[in-house]
């Protein structure tokens, strides 16, 4: 079995953060979302993985490399324009050949991994398996209506009037018959080859598509609020650990905190679940639950919780608690002169903010 990760989107809903970074490389609990997808597929026993890339491809190639760090073999597949998920499958045919494969959207985070799903698919005579989740806003997704016996009646992409609240969560398993489908369907009203149309074609052609309704959490990390929620969910599952070379001086660090190599915690309070990145320095500060501070960050005289701070950023004496913040790389936040109030920010890379 092979894996196929779709990592070609522009990430417009995460602007301005994704003006300068591929959305799939933004870390959740200090690990890029794309790496989480690679590890999820690897942990299910699949080590030959194709990654479909678009205009952010050079950055993804430079960051991820050949996959050897995660003990997988990666092949990059160029998608010149975002012409739909079924188009991504179509252009990956030379890589996938006749092998069954799991397709994973590179900006999805799923509780529990996919090992059980792949075992189910391998152990049954299905031509496809799709993963569904009940959602509050089904019109934003591909939606599936099931028959009373649990089989699939129909699929529709981003319907104005959804026939159900069961959304496709971006994890699919296919055998080689999917290539018949992607070559047979036509572009939708959006001008894209829709994976929902391809799956509907399989059903109407008499092939077996098995639905699996996921009971755990699932997050499409497309918006800043989604990133923060995914970060919180993953931090809840993280096994805390403190690197042997981490420095903790005159500080309170609870048992739910992960501190990575070379980090320094000085005169500070850290409450988890929280992760502090490599060579990051926290001084005279409070870092509260559900916060991920990435590598080479400096935080001094600050209170921050339920936030994500990316690498090489500096936060000095803001004199107000930072809450629900998503702060990019190389950002500087300084206090100018003002009474403290709670502040929520979504800052792009290389920003500099002076708080009045």
Provide key terms for this protein.
alpha/beta, 7-stranded mixed sheet, UDP N-Acetylglucosamine Acyltransferase, domain 1, 356 residues, Spore Coat Polysaccharide Biosynthesis Protein SpsA, Chain A
Radius of gyration: 22 Å
Mean pLDDT over all positions: 88
- State the strand order across the main sheet: 5-4-1-6-11-8-12
* Named CATH architecture of the largest domain: Alpha-Beta Complex
CATH class of the largest domain: Alpha Beta
Task: Explain how this protein is built.
- This protein has 356 residues and is of the alpha/beta class.
- Helices cover 19% and strands 32% of the residues.
- The protein has helices spanning 33-43, 57-64, 85-91, 93-96, 115-122, 178-184, 195-204, 224-237; strands at residues 2-7, 27-28, 31-32, 48-53, 73-78, 101-105, 108-110, 128-134, 142-146, 152-157, 166-174, 209-213, 218-220, 247-249, 252-253, 257-259, 264-266, 269-270, 274-276, 281-283, 286-287, 291-293, 298-300, 303-305, 308-309, 314-316, 321-323, 326-327, 332-335, 346-347, 352-355.
- Strands 5-4-1-6-11-8-12 form a 7-stranded mixed β-sheet, sandwiched between helices.
- Strand 2 and strand 3 (31-32) form a beta hairpin.
- The longest helix is centred in the middle third of the chain and has 14 residues, at 224-237.
- The model has no long low-confidence stretch (mean pLDDT 88).
């Amino acid at each position: 079995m092979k894996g196929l990760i779709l990592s070609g989107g522009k990430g417009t809903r995460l602007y301005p953060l994704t003006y300068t970074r591929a959305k799939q490389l933004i870390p959740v609990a200090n690990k890029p979302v794309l790496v989480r997808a690679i590890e999820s597929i690897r942990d299910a026993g699949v080590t030959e993985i194709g990654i479909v890339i678009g205009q952010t491809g050079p950055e993804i190639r430079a960051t991820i490399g050949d996959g050897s760090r995660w003990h997988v073999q990666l092949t990059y597949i160029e998608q010149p324009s975002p012409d739909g998920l079924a188009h991504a499958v179509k252009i990956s045919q030379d890589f996938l050949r006749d092998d069954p494969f799991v397709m994973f959207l590179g900006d999805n985070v799923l509780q529990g991994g996919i090992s059980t799903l792949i075992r189910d698919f391998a152990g049954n005579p299905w031509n496809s398996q799709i993963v569904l989740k009940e959602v509050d806003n089904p019109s934003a997704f591909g939606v599936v209506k099931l028959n009373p016996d649990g089989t699939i009646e129909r699929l529709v992409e981003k319907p104005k009037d959804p026939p159900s609240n069961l959304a496709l969560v971006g994890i699919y398993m296919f055998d080689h018959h999917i290539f018949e489908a992607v070559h047979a369907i036509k572009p939708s009203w959006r001008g894209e080859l829709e994976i929902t149309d391809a799956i509907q074609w399989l059903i109407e052609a008499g092939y077996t598509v098995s639905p699996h309704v996921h009971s755990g959490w699932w997050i499409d990390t497309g918006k800043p609020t989604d990133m923060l929620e995914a970060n919180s969910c993953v931090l809840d599952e993280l096994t805390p650990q403190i690197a042997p070379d981490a420095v903790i001086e005159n500080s309170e660090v609870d048992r739910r905190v992960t501190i990575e190599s070379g980090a320094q915690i000085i005169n500070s309070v850290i409450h988890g679940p929280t992760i502090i990145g490599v060579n990051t320095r926290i001084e005279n500060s409070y870092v509260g639950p559900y916060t991920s501070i990435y590598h080479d960050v400096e935080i001094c005289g600050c209170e921050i919780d339920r936030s994500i701070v990316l690498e090489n950023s500096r936060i000095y004496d803001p004199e107000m608690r930072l809450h629900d913040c998503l702060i990019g790389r190389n950002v500087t936040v300084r206090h100018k002169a003002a009474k403290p109030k709670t502040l929520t920010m979504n800052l792009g890379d290389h920003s500099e903010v002076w708080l009045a």
